[in-house]
Structure formats: structure tokens, C-alpha cells
Amino acid sequence: MPGGPFRARNALTTVPSRTQTDMSTEFKARQPKGIPVGGQFAPDRHSESGVTLNQVRNRELMAERRELLKTSGYIPAATLHAANAPTTTERRGEWWNRNFVAAEYRAAGKGYPQMPDDYTPARTLGHAMSGHRRTHRMNYGNKDIQLRMPSVTSIKRFSKEHMNPTFDVPVSVSIKGGAPVQGWVRVTKTGPDQWETTTLGGPKGDAADQVAEAAAAVLESRRPTAALSRVSDLLEARKQREAARGSELNPIKSSFIDSIGYDEPSSTMATRIGDKLYGHKVTKQFFDAVRSAERPGAVFNKLVRQGQGSGVEQCSKCNRFSATGVSHTCPTGHKPESGIGLDHVERARTRASHVAATASRGVDPVLDRKVAPAAAPVNTAPAPGAQPVPAKKTGLPGRRRRV
């Protein structure tokens, strides 16, 4: 059996008996206080006995990725259990290999570039896929989160060298001491000291928002190693970032109102009537009532107009509005696919296929198996007026009468 960090093992023999007899049973650890729930980066505690359920699930995920990587089309990003804690530099090769498996891949000739595993100035010999030295990684963290990714210096240099495209950066992360996971963050430099960051793979949630905000905070700081120590609450920082982008005004069918919008961070509804923009503090339910009403003007007069007023300002560049006093930043978002670095992406895909196959040898992927619907019952009752069907002769002796 092949060796290496992903050497396949008969791991299921050491799993506790309950999981052997019923793999459909899920053991969900109680969520520790203070640890966010939701999202692909949500932390989980694992047991210390033998081979953990996390390791078994990781092999199943590898099997799923193995099957997906056999196709040539789009493969969404995923999140895998990390090779080790973000605070350590050990097992570098396995760290990169798992991220290759977890990456997003698109059809040949398409896709976003990945941060290369060999992006170093000197290009000396090393252990990257190309045979050069691996990209330098750094750990950034605070009391709530530990994040390991390519160094900010290398990320910024890669972005500048390629005219600031949108590209994907591999990360490993642990939140509140939870089990570390590995995945990808999509990044785009949108202005001086401004970065757009989005986590890839899996559902969104508080944990995913924390990872995205941590990456943005590090990239935007002049002192990256101290960046996260200055952020006491990543979720609150993320909310403030979203609030600074403002909200859209959308046209509405009304002879009285031209357009309306709702800014959730400040609970403010903006209403444009003619050339004036009015703001009111209302609930989202009141806003929805106006938006969905057959006569929006009448509902606005009844529910909103007499309520608490609030100052609102509209940006002349992006036409979005925000509450007065909020420092507005026009949202730019990620850029379209640039087509750069596709050679590296294809090499990463080839490596990912080999790694996933080796790590999941002997494991069937856990895929959604749809059960075919039961056949509709056949109506065997005779139709009205139908002639009786004669019994078919079988050649067997008939039933004898008793004398």
C-alpha cells in the first residue's frame, strides 16, 4: 500500500463498536459556550479515543472529492478537517495537499487562480509541486481565532504582480479552540488597504463570517501580525463592514412612491418620493408590508410616515443609501475570472485526484441516494358492464366434492 501522509489505513476497525454497527448514527458534541454555530468553518470538538469520527468522516469526504475530481466540469470548494493546528508549521506537504483537494475547480480553461504553493522570490529548490520552495505561510490570531495562510507579503505581491485579480487563498483555522479545518477564502483587492473576502465551500454562518473578516483584517492592516489582536469582536467588525456598504433603493409600483430600500444594520427604511429621500426607523415587517402591498402609498402612510424619522444619505456613485453618520464605502465585489494561473490550477487538480484517491482507498463515498417512488397500485376491479373472464385451465385436478 502506498506510503506518504495520506497512506490509506483500515481505520474502521478501531472505531468504537457503536459506529461500526450503525454508521448512520450521528454523535453531535455539545457546542461549547462562546463558539459560533453554523457555516463550514464552525468548530467541533472531537474525542481522544483511537480513530475519531472526524477522521472517519474525513476519509468519507476524501472519497466524495475523489469521485467529483473524476469529472471535468465544475467542482465546488469544500472544507476538510485540518492536517494539524494552525499554530504549528509541521506537515507542510499534507497542509497543501488537503487544500488542493478542497479547492474549487471549473471546466478546462476557466476558473479563478489559486495562490500558488511555490510563490517565492528566489525560486530556489524545494518541495512544491514545481520542485521549487513552498510559499511562506504565517499564523495570525487572537484569543478567539487562529488563522494560517500564505503570508500577507506574498498575497499582496501576487495580487500586485497580476493587476489585482480575484483569486483564492488556502487557509486553516481554529475558532475558540475547536477542531481545526482547512478551506479557501476568495480575495480581491478593491482599493488602497481595502480587500473583499469571501469563504468558499459549505453554508454560510457566523463562523464563516469570522474567517472572512479575519482574512480581511490581516490583509488591510499595516501590521498584519498584530491585526487580529486589535479586533475584539470579528462578527461585530463584519457587521460594520456590511453596514458601510449601504443598501439598494428599488423601484416600486406606486403613483406616490418612486423607490424604497431597507438597511438592516441600522433598521432604517429609505423612501424616495420625487426628488426627496426620507428615512424612518421601522421593523423589517413594516418594510415588507409596504413593498408587497397593492397600494404601497396607503400602507406607507399608515405604518411608516408617522413613525420615528431617521437621517439617510444616498451615494452619488453607487446610488446606495446608508444611515447618516455611517462612513460609506461603495461595494465592488469580486471580479470576473481572469484566466491567469490556469496551469497551476490544473497541476493542483491532478495532485488533488491522487491525494483523494490515496486517502480514501477502500471507502465508498456517502452520496445522496434517492429512493425510487413506489409504483402506483393497479386497479383490478372490473369495469361496469364488463363480461366475466373465464377461468384459465391449468390441467390440475379440480377440488373433489364430499359425498
How does this structure look, described?
Helix content is 27%, strand content 16%. It has 403 residues and is α+β, with helices and mostly antiparallel strands. It has two domains: 11-244 and 341-359, no CATH class; 250-323, no CATH class. Strands 1, 2, 3, 4, 5 and 6 form a six-stranded antiparallel sheet that branches. It has a four-stranded antiparallel sheet with strand order 7-8-9-10, covered by helices on one side. Helix 2 (53-68) packs across helix 10 (342-359) and helix 5 (206-220) packs across helix 7 (234-244).
Task: Please name the defining characteristics of this protein.
alpha+beta; 16% strand; 403 residues; 27% helix; disordered N terminus; 2 domains; 6-stranded antiparallel beta sheet; single chain
Please specify the SSE layout and strand pairing.
Blueprint: H1 17-21, H2 53-68, E1 80-81, H3 92-102, E2 137-141, E3 145-150, H4 152-161, E4 167-175, E5 181-191, E6 194-200, H5 206-220, H6 224-227, H7 234-244, E7 250-251, E8 259-263, E9 268-273, E10 276-281, H8 284-292, H9 296-303, E11 312-314, E12 321-323, H10 342-359
Antiparallel strand pairs: 1-5, 2-3, 3-4, 4-5, 5-6, 7-8, 8-9, 9-10, 11-12
Helix pairs in contact: 2-10, 3-10, 5-7, 8-9
What value does the average pLDDT take? 83
How many distinct domains? 2
Look at the helices and sheets and give the structural class.
alpha+beta
The amount of beta strand, in percent, is 15-25%
Percent of residues in helices comes to: 25-40%
What is the count of DSSP helices, taking H or I runs of 4+ residues?
10
- The ordered string of helix (H) and strand (E) elements is HHEHEEHEEEHHHEEEEHHEEH
Q: Sketch the major β-sheet.
A: 6 strands, antiparallel
| Quantity of strands, as a count | 12
Intertermini distance: 80 Å
Overall geometric form: elongated
Alpha carbon gyration radius: 29 Å
Low-confidence stretches: 1-32, 45-51, 368-383, 389-397
